[in-house]
Design a protein that fits this description.
Blueprint (H helix, E strand, L loop, with lengths): L5 H30 L4 E10 L7 E7 L8 E4 L4 E6 L9 E3 L23 E6 L5 E6 L4 H6 L4 E6 L8 E10 L25 E4 L15 E7 L15
Parallel strand pairs: 1-4, 3-8, 9-11
Antiparallel strand pairs: 1-2, 4-6, 5-7, 7-8, 9-10
Length: about 240
């Protein structure tokens, strides 16, 4: 026959409470672990790219191994993570242009984070509070790094948006290239009193007048990000107001 004493009763209550706390805490941390996404790896690199007719342009900068920087997709209010790995000689960072991020994630060296030197990395993590179209670029030696290609498009998706039949994201920019297809000086002093030094070759997604398919009569979302160093663009859609 079991005899219940005050001491045994308190011991049982303490054990039950400890078990409850352990289960509750484990569940909470498991939820946090599940919510943390794998970081998107963005490694800077210098490549040769076909930006105009003729010889490929040397020392074009991108994130990845080939082609323009990727379109980065996030979801409004959901955790996002990226790891910047620097594979070029210049120190660099990533600034998430237009996105309201915590200050330490803003990518401005000596103000919100240290330089990321060649061979080093930096981890970014935030939850974008707003949906829309944005862009990303470095805040280090920007005239050279952005002028040589380190600009990409960000899409922050809203789960409440209507469904579209097609979506096209355009990275609009120009390049300072000579007739041989190679880079020329990114800045001319005489242009400082004007509106800046324009490029000589315009591209969309690093292509000359690309064409994209969409279903006839379909609802198409066009996302355009001007990632240029200087040029201001005017838009029109032929056959529409």
């Amino acid at each position: 026959m079991s005899v219940f004493t005050r001491r045994r009763l308190l011991q049982g209550a303490a054990a039950a409470g400890a078990a409850g706390i352990g289960l509750s805490t484990a569940g909470k941390f498991a939820g946090w672990a599940a919510a943390k996404p794998e970081p998107l790896i963005l490694k800077t690199a210098g490549i040769a790219a076909q930006l105009m007719a003729g010889a490929p342009t040397k020392n074009v900068l991108t994130y990845g191994e080939a082609g323009p920087p990727p379109v980065i997709r996030m979801k409004k209010g959901k955790p996002f993570a990226a790891r910047l790995v620097n594979g070029i000689d210049d120190p660099t960072t990533i600034h998430w242009h237009g996105i309201r991020v915590p200050n330490k994630m803003d990518g401005v060296p000596f103000m919100s984070q240290p330089y990321v030197y060649q061979g080093d990395h930096f981890d970014y993590a935030f939850a974008p509070p707003d949906a829309g179209t944005f862009w990303y670029h470095p805040h280090c030696n920007t005239l050279e790094q952005m002028g040589h290609g380190l600009t990409g498009v960000i899409v922050v998706e809203n789960p409440n948006d209507p469904a579209f039949d097609a979506e096209v994201a355009l990275n609009l920019r120009d390049w300072r290239l000579g007739d041989d297809g190679q880079f020329i000086a990114q800045f001319r002093p005489r242009d400082a009193a004007r509106s800046g030094t324009y490029g000589t070759v315009r591209t969309a997604n690093w292509l000359d007048q690309p064409q994209y398919d969409a279903p006839a009569g379909g609802l198409v979302r066009l996302r355009a990000a001007i990632t240029d160093v200087t040029r201001i663009y005017g838009f029109r859609v032929d056959g529409a107001e």
